[in-house]
Amino acid sequence: MEAIVYQPIGIISSPYRTRAGMPIQAAGARGIRGTIKIFPEFGDGLKDLGGFSHIILLYHFHRTQEKALVVTPFLDDQPRGVFATRSPNHPNAIGISIVRLLAIEGLRLSIEDVDILDGTPLLDIKPYVPAFDQRKPERVGWLEKAQGKADQHRADERFK
Amino acid sequence: MEAIVYQPIGIISSPYRTRAGMPIQAAGARGIRGTIKIFPEFGDGLKDLGGFSHIILLYHFHRTQEKALVVTPFLDDQPRGVFATRSPNHPNAIGISIVRLLAIEGLRLSIEDVDILDGTPLLDIKPYVPAFDQRKPERVGWLEKAQGKADQHRADERFK
């Protein structure tokens, strides 16, 4: 199939310069602030976004070099299929985070609960809408016991 | 900035051959079934995925040709900044849907609550995990009144 080509729409800034030590999910990043600079040519698309308290960010894991179809996640000691994990080593290194939107000033967004590396290229913003985005899953696989511990875990250098 | 290049990992099949008449969100697609065929080279990444009742699909809106920074959404009669909408006309046409995972047989995933066009190239699968993916937003902007009506709305041809 044809390759799909995207252009970054902006850059995410955060306090995390390296993956080691950073939170592995937003649950461990409560209160951590960052900013997004949207490139000028996309500024008009920000209209009305300020009405939303939470936004979905889709971005490119720009520091991830290795791909792997089986990985051992931070929250586990067993190798798992990469699609059953939130590791950055997926075949297409697309990250997703839901962050709190604090303010928009021109092309600059202030955000909170940030679990994203500094300098990350942003691909898309969508409003977070409970009626669209919330489910009540009956099963969360290997994460059943581990999901509540994400706030206590920090990343290490295992995912290059 | 450098362009980002992704390769589809599979293809989504659904009953929707055209956008007109299809649900605008999974809320209006309850019970609608589809399938995903994962390309053989990515099959090993599916290990352990069957333990999750819900999965996040990231895909490319392959039938969307026009980009627009301001759009009038299906659920509204006012023009809105595209990043404040879930329209497919974002600068990078990445779609996100949370679907129910019914079964995995080899490279074939059976899914339910599908609001995705037939033939859509799949970019990524992630497990849906409440501890990571659920927020309680205080504000959902222009969607405040409209979000509950998504299940009654069908798409038309406005987004080319």
How would you characterize the overall build of this protein?
By secondary structure, chain A is mainly β. The first copy, chain A, has a single domain, classed as Elongation Factor Tu (Ef-tu), domain 3. Chain A is built from 1 helix and 9 strands. The first copy, chain A, has one helix spanning 130-133; strands at residues 4-6, 10-13, 33-38, 54-60, 70-71, 80-81, 94-105, 108-112, 120-127. In chain A, the strands form 2 sheets. A 6-stranded antiparallel β-barrel of chain A has the order 2-3-8-7-4-9. A two-stranded antiparallel sheet of chain A has the order 5-6. The two termini of chain A are 27 Å apart. The mean pLDDT of chain A is 92. Chains A and B meet through strand 1, strand 4, strand 6, strand 7 and strand 9 of A and strand 1, strand 4, strand 6, strand 7 and strand 9 of B.
Short description:
The first copy, chain A, is 2% helix and 31% strand. With 160 residues, chain A is mainly beta. Chain A starts with a strand and ends in a 27-residue tail after the last helix.
